[in-house]
Amino acid sequence: MITIRDLRYRAFAIDALDISPGITSVIGKNGSGKSTFLKLCAGIAEPGSGTIFVDTLPPRETDAGYVNEFPDRNILFSTVKDELASPLRFRFTPCEETGHMVQECAERLGIGHLLDRRMGELSGGEKVLVAFAAAVIGRPRVLVLDECDSHLDSGRCGWLEGAIRASGAMYVIRCTQQMDTAASSDHLLFLEKGQVLHAGTPGEVFSRLADTPFYPLSWRCTP
Ligand SMILES: Nc1ncnc2c1ncn2[C@@H]1O[C@H](COP(=O)(O)OP(=O)(O)OP(=O)(O)O)[C@@H](O)[C@H]1O
């Protein structure tokens, strides 16, 4: 369980929230605090006060993979191969094993053809795919994806759902502007002005958003 208690960070406030294993989607208006919440879950931001624990450890002491909303902000190294290898090298994985894992991961995620390219030359969607691969290559316990789908074509968006499930991460926390994608999650959080206004299953949360633009299009079409 991810447990959050009395958390305060800038204008962001959560008194008590428990997140069960599975895929949790975070939705809400622009500026409602989705990226801030994701950064706290990934350990990129530290609470000003209060606590957040992934099972028994704070996020910074947990294996976490993170994809930033902006593709260029994910990049640490100049080539795709080095970018993908970096999470393994930071853990002192032996060179031969790293090389093998990079090749296997790139091929499995359909970016084997990009391995020798320079990061700066990739398209926005290609950068996101490499960032996703770098986030999952070390099999993280927590996978945090900030609008990972916003640069991907519709075929890749569908593919991403399977890749997220196949990542093996116990907790996936992602935000998306695609409500049909959010509807396929296990859990849903609706944020407003830095607070969790609704939390529950997609059915529970969307039932409270029926008259808003956040209601999934495919659910509207259902007779
Ligand atoms: N580094 C920062 N310093 C100060 N305020 C910030 C910082 N980053 C974000 N904010 C503010 O915190 C609030 C929440 O921002 P956040 O990026 O979490 O929203 P969001 O829901 O992800 O928005 P969007 O859907 O537009 O990406 C916004 O008002 C934003 O201006």
Automatic annotation (TrEMBL):
Residues 2-218 form the ABC transporter domain. Gene3D superfamilies: P-loop containing nucleotide triphosphate hydrolases (3.40.50.300). The keyword Lipid metabolism does not apply. Pfam families: ABC_tran. One of its GO terms (cellular component) is ATP-binding cassette (ABC) transporter complex. The keyword Plastid does not apply. GO terms for molecular function: ATP binding; ATP hydrolysis activity; ATPase-coupled transmembrane transporter activity. InterPro entries: AAA+_ATPase, ABC_transporter-like_ATP-bd, ABC_transporter-like_CS, ECF_ABC_transporter_ATP-bd, P-loop_NTPase. This is ABC transporter related. It is found in: Cell membrane. It is a peripheral membrane protein. It comes from Methanoregula boonei (strain DSM 21154 / JCM 14090 / 6A8). It comes from the Archaea. Keywords: ATP-binding, Cell membrane, Membrane, Nucleotide-binding, Translocase, Transport.
